[in-house]
Amino acid sequence: MNDTALISVIVTTFNREDALEAVLGALAAQSDCNFEIVIADDGSGPETAQVVATWRARLGVPLKHVRHEHRGFRGGEIRNRGIRASAGALCIFLDGDCLARPDFIAAHRRLYEPSWFVTGNRILLSPEFTTAVLAQGLKPQLWNFGNLVRQRLHGGINRLAPAVHLPLGPLRKLHSVSWRGAQTCNLAVARKDLDRVDGFDNAFVGWGLEDSDLVVRLLRAGLRRKDGRFATGVLHLWHPWNDRAQLSENRTHLEETIGSTRIRASRGLSSLVHEIEEVQAGEVVAHHSMAQQ
């Protein structure tokens, strides 16, 4: 992807303002500044909007905020709203508790090629280290490898490999048709390809597998998977497990997709066309139309 093409970083969040502050701080330090940020807010309180407003004035890149009402975990749907609000040729999905290293955007730009999507990986932080990072304003995404090794020895992080940079070349395409293990905490897909498969499937409600469903359909549409390991790794702040009560139902949805020939989501981006969107001062707020209430 050439240097003039805008990239949209779609950051999902829900009521975790301290983590969002750290995430935006990491994105503010990117070496490649030709990107926008879209906060995809799964129904947070007003404190999240205040964080966004504070950062908008000092971030240096466009910052948008799209939100819907909280009705449980709706990760796929809020990401679709983020896609609709985005203006970039490439969408990078990043969780609102993942700290991007300074070359994160540049690495995704470098790895992009038509008809491929890129899946990245992450380092998990311990609860104790996460608390220290947020309370003390630490920036582990800027640390050198030696400091990360020390954290690994003290149990602060679970592994080191995502912090290593290696030029894998053709090895990045070894698992080009595998959907397993791809996660939206670090995933880059061209906007035109998201439109082609109608984005995420809003039928996935509750935590889990909406990202797998998307990847299955991308592969079926003829795209291929490129491995972003040793290039795009992020640091994932600890959080308690999400409620997985609906995981079994989501697994059934995924199995139906795998067993079908569908490319487009059963209820995806196009299902949101009847919604009203207001754009004010760079902020996008989604409202349900009366017909949908």
Secondary-structure topology with pairs:
Elements: E1 7-13, H1 17-27, E2 35-41, H2 46-56, E3 63-67, H3 75-85, E4 90-95, E5 98-100, H4 104-111, E6 116-119, E7 122-124, H5 127-136, H6 145-153, E8 186-190, H7 191-196, H8 210-220, E9 224-227, E10 234-236, H9 247-258, E11 276-280, E12 283-287
Parallel strand pairs: 1-2, 1-4, 2-3, 6-9, 7-10
Antiparallel strand pairs: 4-8, 5-10, 6-8, 11-12
Could you explain the architecture of this structure?
The chain is α/β, with parallel strands linked by helices. It has one domain (7-292): Alpha-Beta Complex (Spore Coat Polysaccharide Biosynthesis Protein SpsA, Chain A), CATH 3.90.550. Helices cover 30% and strands 19% of the residues. The protein has helices at 17-27, 46-56, 75-85, 104-111, 127-136, 145-153, 191-196, 210-220, 247-258, and strands at 7-13, 35-41, 63-67, 90-95, 98-100, 116-119, 122-124, 186-190, 224-227, 234-236, 276-280, 283-287. The strands form 3 sheets. Strands 3-2-1-4-8-6-9 form a 7-stranded mixed β-sheet, with helices on both faces. A 3-stranded mixed β-sheet has the order 5-10-7. The protein has a two-stranded antiparallel ribbon with strand order 11-12. α8 packs parallel to α9 (247-258). The longest helix has 12 residues, at 247-258. It is globular and about 50 Å long.
